Amino acid sequence: MKNAIHYTIVPKDFAGHLFAVSVTLPAAHPAGQVFTLPAWIPGSYMIRDFARNIVQIRAESGGRSIALKKRDKHSWQAASCDGPLTVYYDVYAWDLSVRTAHLDQTHGFFNGTSVFLCVEGQADVPHVVDIRRPDDAACKDWRVATALPELKAKRYGFGTYVAADYDELIDHPVELGNFALASFKAHGVPHDIAITGRVPGLDMARLATDLKKICETHIAFFEPKTKRAPMPRYVFMTMAVGDGYGGLEHRASTALICARADLPVQGQKEISDGYRTFLGLCSHEYFHTWNVKRIKPAAFAPYDLGAESYTSLLWLFEGFTSYYDDLILVRSGLIDQAAYFKLVAKTVNAVLRGSGRHKQSVAESSFDAWTKYYRQDENSPNAIVSYYTKGSLVALALDLTIRAETNGRKSLDDVMRALWQQFGRDFYAGNGGRGVSESEVEALFDSVTGLKLKRLLDRSVRGTGDLPLAKLLAPFGVTLADDHKNAKAGLGVRTARDGNDCKLANVYEGGAAHCAGLSAGDLLVALDGLRVSAVNLDALLARYRVGDTATLHAFRRDELMTFNVKLAQDDAPQMALAPQAKPAAAARLRAAWLTGKSAGKKTP
Predict the structure, then answer these.
(1) Are the C-beta atoms of 53 and 114 separated by less than 8 Å?
(2) Integer Cα distance of 218 and 337 in angstroms
(3) Is the alpha carbon torsion for 360, 365, 367, 370 positive or negative?
(4) Helix H or strand E encompassing 257
(5) Residue 479 forms beta bridges with which residues?
(6) What are the residues whose beta carbons fall under 8 Å from the beta carbon of 571, sequence distance 6 or more?
(7) How far is 60 from 48, CA to CA, in rounded Å?
(8) Which residues of the chain are modeled with pLDDT < 50?
(9) I need a surface site. Which of 114, 157, 351, 392 has the fewest CB within 10 A?
(10) What domains can be seen in the chain, in order of their start residue?
(11) To the nearest whole number, what is the mean pLDDT of the chain?
């Protein structure tokens, strides 16, 4: 393609985990061409400095070496030259996550932010990438999974792919290898599922059937009349491992990692907890196709991938997505009301577990994502709140409030569709799509619903108090009760296994361990002279009553310390949601909420 930027990428060294990459441009800047690599990847709000994985780099023009000077941690400048300029470099790829790149004999995976240098001043021209097959006979059956549009490559094949600009190029991750593959259409749009890793008895047919229901429910949610998806094709890329969980959204695909035990097994009809978790992850990342990839906060339009981009709206873009990911499961018929209420209760309990919720609002949590949420330590439960989990409860509170106060005529669904129509639908269409500001979001809530929601937003988004969920659930005939009143004696800690030892991972503020002077990182040795192991702490504590005093021995670093602990009631919340049969009006509102359909009766 004339005037396009051309890349090549090939798995070079499996044992060394190296991709060989080159970028060629027809004409360099007369004063010397600058190349940069992103410092972070959209959807994961932490500076990761991907340039640190470039192990060697050089430049050529017309067969002649061109000087290449490093300007800062993630940019280089080539000396001036005439004619085409090519930069060759190797990228170390040994991060088994959804964020960067990974390569060995089993597969290859990369995000463009990790491997493709940006040609400064030419990011808006077409970008072509030649994905080349590894020079290894064992890889003759490898395929390519990506949502990048094919140029000369065939679907799932090696060869050239094209993007309209650099932003699109880096928004399509690529999986290489012998992956399991299944396909389906959701409202006419082709969807692929690529599963990498050994998964005995994997039921790909069931996975395709279930994901089709989820995807069609999402598409109809945002476009109830047209059922039109915003992308021509979508790809789910999943790495199955022994133990793992995570996902990262892209404009027409998602990269996922999961425990192989979470994937469906042939002949098993029920939905296991692990499979339900995986479907919720898929639902979450798919909802992002609209909410954050196209409906964007103003700070992300456009992205500045060289530095932090601060926004106070992640409670909406991540929290609301976390609310709808499980709600879509029940609306698509994959789980029932009881299963959904258990998922909501789990979220409520997670939020109530840490005292950090009283010290940081979800707006502050959003803004501080770069330094706090993505850099959590042992004290995080006592210092911060998650804009994912509490953000999902904010969405629940708003949805219930809107539905109750309008007698079912309006809901949070209407607000999300309005955000889509005004700020998302045209974002990649070249029609002036732009990001949404916090003030515009709040004004939209009022204009769409006809309510005055500032007070609730002040309390839930900018405040640090607990949400009145029991009160808000009551009009829907749902009770919210805490069942931990009869909880046994506890330390108020979260433990982790350290070999055969029991290590304190978190010490919750105000708990028995905190009051006795124990700290995160301490290794518990004995409780009243009986050895504490990695697995027996709960059994030992079960012999005590609330208020009893016990002697704990623990190692802090290499020093043995003694603590007298007054055992308190285990304060881990055990909230549970339960539906009530009557009254009929409440059942009608509840049904509309859980199905996404009209509440029926409407007030004039």
Answers:
(1) yes
(2) 18
(3) positive
(4) strand 253-259
(5) 578
(6) 484, 487, 490, 492, 508, 510, 511
(7) 28
(8) 601-604
(9) 157
(10) 5-176 (2.60.40.3650), 179-272 (3.30.2010), 290-478 (1.10.390.10), 488-569 (2.30.42.10)
(11) 95
What's the pLDDT tens digit per position in 20-65?
A: 999 999 999 999 999 999 999 999 999 999 999 999 999 999 999 9
105's tokens: 């004999």
pTM: 0.95
| Token pair of 239 as six digits | 């790495």
Cβ 383 vs Cβ 359: under 8 Å? yes
Angle among Cα 551, 557, 560 to the nearest 5 degrees reads 35
Task: Return the structure tokens found at 203.
Answer: 């039921």
10, β-bridge pairs: 20
Tally of CA atoms within 13 A in the half-sphere of 548 that contains its CB: 16
Six token digits for residue 247 = 């996902």
Q: What is the 3-state secondary structure (H, E, C) of 509-564?
A: CCCHHHHHCCCCCCEEEEECCEECCCCCHHHHHCCCCCCCEEEEEEEECCEEEEEE
Instruction: Return all residues near 66 (Cβ < 8 A) that are at least 6 apart.
Output: 59, 60, 78, 79, 81, 85
- Comparing C-alpha atoms, which of 166, 99, 118, 24 is closest to residue 306? 118
